[in-house]
Specification:
The complex is a heterodimer of chains A (about 140) and B (about 200). With about 140 residues, chain A is α+β, with helices and mostly antiparallel strands. Helices cover about 35% and strands about 30% of the residues of chain A. Chain B folds into two domains: about 140 residues, Lysozyme-like, CATH 3.40.80; about 35 residues, no CATH class. Classes of the chains: A alpha+beta (about 140), B alpha/beta (about 200). At the A-B interface, α4 and β6 of A face β4, α1 and α4 of B. Bound molecules: zinc ion. Zinc ion binds next to loops of chain B.
């Protein structure tokens, strides 16, 4: 009962008053939206690095789905502070009915984050800090 | 002209808003300044994150309207740089021996990207500045409020008021800390961050 009251209070405060809740709210939305129903198609590797640094970085559709299933939505502060950006990418298309993603282009970069950009301007930053086994060559 | 006393920059243009949770130990020397963008649309978003238990951030923050806040003492380290790139690899100036060592670490087969990047960071940290890029242990950070646009996949443009404040702040700090223009870096130059971060910052 107390827990429920606290949750209601926090959601009211987050929704109406406190910008402080932005990050936590974003993370919470990411957690809530993790319905583990990602479906990935059309994966292909891309590199902006001129050397062989990125060579061998590929993901199968199953591995790309694992990246999204293990990960979460993050905000820009978390992207800046917690994740590296490496110029090695696996691009593809992703669907998730729970998140209204329908065959949206995505790009996973080897530092552990991904951008997903759907029609109509809806976009996500996704991140996985438990995916070191996938982000390898 | 600003003054520096006990790690605090005093001047008409600077508001003190110190977040003790950013402090990660004594900063013995300042060799450089690293310029960042926050990834958030307002200063308040960043201030809120600075109050979290495991807060990371920089020493100064420049708001959208050009207001300058000091958020950490200059006498304290903060975690704002992350894992160092190899400076000699980036500027193509490695000795033949160092080129072999650095590339063996960076291109090691059978290891995750995270492990390769971590190992190269450790290797770089053992070098003296300026053979390496500045790290958390010898630099201060300036954050500029700027959102990371998800649709555009890029940081916002630094505006004219922010650049004017950045120019003033960098100039004062260069003078007070005996730094030169060669000691000022954009974050993606020193570490592994999105190339557009602070790319439109001018000082
Ligand atoms: Zn930065």
């Amino acid at each position: 009962m107390v827990g429920l009251q606290l949750r209601i209070l926090v959601s009211l405060a987050c929704g109406l008053v406190l910008p402080a809740c932005h990050q936590g709210n974003g993370e919470a939305q990411g957690m809530k939206s993790n319905k583990r129903s990602f479906s990935v198609t059309e994966v292909h590797a891309r590199s902006e690095h001129k050397s062989s640094f990125c060579s061998g970085f590929t993901l199968t559709t199953t591995q790309a789905e694992a990246f999204f299933n293990r990960g979460r939505e993050i905000d820009g502060i978390t992207l800046h502070e917690k994740f590296d950006w490496l110029p090695c990418y696996v691009d593809g298309r992703i669907s998730n009915p729970e998140l209204n993603m329908n065959h949206c282009p995505f790009s996973i970069q080897a530092g552990g984050t991904a951008s997903i950009r759907c029609d109509g301007g809806k976009a996500f930053i996704w991140a996985c800090d438990q995916c070191e086994d996938l982000l390898a060559d | 002209m600003a003054t520096l006393t006990n790690g605090k920059l005093a001047g008409k243009k600077v508001t003190q808003k110190i977040f003790p949770k950013l402090h990660k130990g004594v900063l013995a020397a300042v060799n450089a300044i690293v310029v960042h963008q926050t990834g958030a649309p307002s200063a308040q978003h960043t201030f809120n994150s600075y109050s979290n238990a495991n807060a990371n951030g920089a020493h100064f923050l420049i708001d959208k309207n050009g207001d300058i806040y000091q958020t950490a003492l200059i006498t304290q380290k903060t975690y704002h740089v992350g894992k160092l790139q190899s400076r000699c690899l980036q500027v193509k100036a490695c000795s033949p021996e160092e080129l072999t060592v650095a590339t063996n670490i960076l291109y090691a087969k059978g290891q995750s990207f995270a492990a390769r990047v971590r190992n190269l960071h450790k290797h770089e940290q053992a070098k003296p500045y300026p053979d390496r890029y500045p790290s958390n242990n010898d630099s201060i950070g300036i954050e500029i409020v700027g959102e990371f646009s998800k649709p555009a996949n890029a940081y916002a443009q630094v505006n004219a008021k922010q650049n004017a404040s950045l120019k003033w702040l960098v100039s004062e700090l260069e003078s007070l800390l005996s730094l030169t223009s060669d000691d000022i870096y954009r974050h993606p130059e020193a570490s592994r961050k999105h190339a557009t971060e602070a790319s439109t910052a001018q000082w």
